[in-house]
Amino acid sequence: MSLTARLDELRALIHYHNHRYHVLDDPEITDSEYDTLFDELLSLEDAHPELVTIDSPSQRVGGAPLDGFRSVHHERPMLSLDKCTTVSELQDWLSRCRSRLGNDAPIDLTCEPKIDGVAVALVYEKGVLVQAATRGDGQSGEDITANVRTIGSVPLKLTADEIPPRMEVRGEIYMPLAEFERFNEKARREGVKALINPRNGAAGSLRQLDPKLTADRPLTMFCYSLGWSEGSWQPETHGEVLFRLDEWGFRVNPDSAVFRDLDGVERYLSELLARREDLGYDIDGVVIKVDSLALQETLGNVTRKPRWAIAYKYPAEEATTRLLEVEFQVGRTGAVTPVARLEPVFVGGVTVSNATLHNMDEVARLDVRLGDTVMVRRAGDVIPQIVKVVKSRRKKGAEKVALPDNCPVCGSEIVREGDESVARCSGGVMRCEAQRKEGLKHFASRLALDIEGLGDKLLEQLVEMGHVATPADLFRLDLETLIALPRMGKKSGENLLVALDKSKRTTLPRFIYALGVREVGEATAMSLATHFLDLEALLNADQTELETVEDVGPIVARNIVSFFAEQGHLEMIEQLRDAGVAWQPLEKEKSALAPLQGQTWVLTGTLEQLTRDRAKALLVSLGAKVAGSVSSRTDQVVAGPGAGSKLAKAESLGVPVMDEAGLLDLLGERGIAID
Ligand code: IVH
Fold first, then answer.
1. 617 CA from centroid of ligand 1 (Å)
2. Is the CB of 311 under 6 A from ligand 1?
3. How many alpha carbons lie under 13 Å from residue 144 in its C-beta half-sphere?
4. DSSP states of 573-611 as a string?
5. Residue 48, phi-psi category: left (phi > 0), alpha (psi -120 to 50), beta (remainder)
6. CATH 1.10.150.20 fits 508-590, yes or no
7. pLDDT for 380 beyond 80
8. How remote is the CA of residue 80 from the centroid of ligand 1, in Å?
9. CATH topology of domain 428-503
10. What is the pLDDT of residues 154-191, one digit of tens each?
């Protein structure tokens, strides 16, 4: 094969696998196979720089830094949208459309999530991405081509036959919530500036003069319209545009839908709102568009807003309020977390009066002081956060927040190890009641020993009255002690003893999780159990062996080693086993614990008991791969209420579908009970 033919082949292969990975979320080859292809391309291009093309995947990696961004004029203005917040305003909008069109014919409406990111216009010539620009003032924006090239889900080259010779595709670049959280957790650990919200994160990443910095940011894009196109293709509806964009390899939101009437739209609005926390990205509402492009044309625009579309806004996920006080909470591992007490404020659909401040580095970075006006964010299933202080509204002499020298619960010294940003109470479980209580709550929790009827309040009482200090003490409780507790009758006492007894028959993954090793969650506990098969092997494992376990990195490995190096912990394990805590030995066959090995699962619609992230982590721990789109290679789809196109596709391909209850049953059979 000639050199140019091999280069073409490599580029085509890489484009193909890139699309499978970034757009379809359904890779066909492993990362290392992909790297091998990429390395070959890089080395051939290195040896023959004259053969490098602008659409080569190698050009994603990030070119030379720029001095500034060139301004580009949009051939057709990028419009903004009228907003509404009630269904009656939506009805008014539709009536206005009808009266302008002068008839009562039904109007098909498309609904799509209104992504809270950065609007971008991509120009393709002969299928090659030649320009990417921000919206700017709508007339002209900034040329951010070099940065947009680094985003894996943006096609550099389109390969379908019928692509318009020139066209502009528009959409929203955003940072997925999980990536945003990961980025910020890392920033907090390293004491560097965290991102305020995913939208600022995306905007800031796109405005880097050095594309290599953008390449490191986890960005992706949903395409939602065609700015203009040349050539013979004349789409008739917005839905047809989305369908083509998807076919050509753009990432198109799978949650778009077309409705004949407002009832359908209303249902969509409430179903999407119910799923807002599970979407994995920030939305601020729904965009409703007249589906027919001819009708769009007839309706036209008023100044910079189209008459044919409207944004229905959901409650904001950010709001300002006042910081009343900062309290320090002591967790299971002694971590002392500053918690903000706020003047109650309605945000993200609920009233929030507490927000986490994470740690003292975060307090210092925000420079938050008592009485400050702060911006609170509540999005996804994460706890409310303070993202910003409105400094202009600070009162003179506002008091700084100081870390206490001593634990507010046990009085032991508070220490910070090395350069860790977390401060900890040095009392340990033996001296610190807060750590004891939290450790016991964890031990009894659903994913750990799952002791039914042993709620937080009851546990706190048992600890405060000195009946229980360690997990093994729970199994020494007797009826007499229990019925002496306030509000505890004979029947509930007996029930609790039965539940305690029942919880002794557990599983190895649950037991490992229940121990409460720092940063060992249920998915990691499952990986450890699958790897070691019995507790003795885990106890004896060294750092090197631990690091070979799936999702165990050096830090988690170190936490495990130091946990089992403590005599007190070994004694606790001994006492628990003496009390009768036991599990079935695992078969020496690892597949017993990874029954879904080699399977690809897809989650869609709303999950009510599990968050999407947790469901994913649990499936992964059982060996499955969780993909974002349904294909003929999908083994199983889990569909909740509101499932749309993925469910339809699964049904048309004959892929088995189960509901959340089915998933919970399956997890239950594996010893993972959720409710
Ligand atoms: S359509 C004239 N569709 O919302 C049509 N916009 O306020 C305008 N946006 O700047 C664009 N998701 O950044 C459209 N599915 C979606 C959208 C969307 C987010 C943003 C876009 C635009 C702003 C308009």
1. 32
2. yes
3. 29
4. HHHHHHTT-EEPPPPS-GGGT-TTTT-EEEEES--SSS-
5. beta
6. yes
7. no
8. 7
9. DNA polymerase; domain 1 (1.10.150)
10. 999 998 888 999 999 999 999 999 899 889 888 887 77
Please state, as a whole number, how many other Cβ atoms lie within 10 Å of the Cβ of residue 410: 19
- Let me know if 437 is a catalytic residue: no
Q: pLDDT digits over 611-646, tens only?
A: 777 888 788 778 788 888 888 889 999 998 877 778
On whether the pTM is more than 0.90, the answer is no
Which residues have C-beta within 8 Å of that of residue 310, sequence separation ≥ 6? Answer: 81, 82, 83, 84, 90, 93, 287, 288
Domain 3-52 has CATH 1.10.287.610: yes
How far is 425 from 559, CA to CA, in rounded Å? 17
Which atom from ligand 1 is nearest to the alpha carbon of 284? 19
Task: State the CB neighbour count (10 A cutoff) for residue 136.
Answer: 17
Fold of 317-426: OB fold (Dihydrolipoamide Acetyltransferase, E2P) (2.40.50)
CATH number of the domain at 595-669, please?
Answer: 3.40.50.10190
What counts of helices (H) and strands (E) characterise the chain?
Answer: 26, 26
Q: Please say whether the beta carbons of 215 and 61 come within 8 A.
A: yes
Q: Where are the domains of the chain?
A: 3-52, 82-313, 317-426, 428-503, 508-590, 595-669
| Paired residues of 229 in beta bridges | 167
**Active-site entry in 83, 114, 212, 588:** 114
Alpha-carbon gap, residue 115 to 598, rounded angstroms: 33
Calculate what percentage of the chain has a pLDDT beyond 70. 98
Query: Contact at 8 Å (CB) between 34 and 20?
Result: no
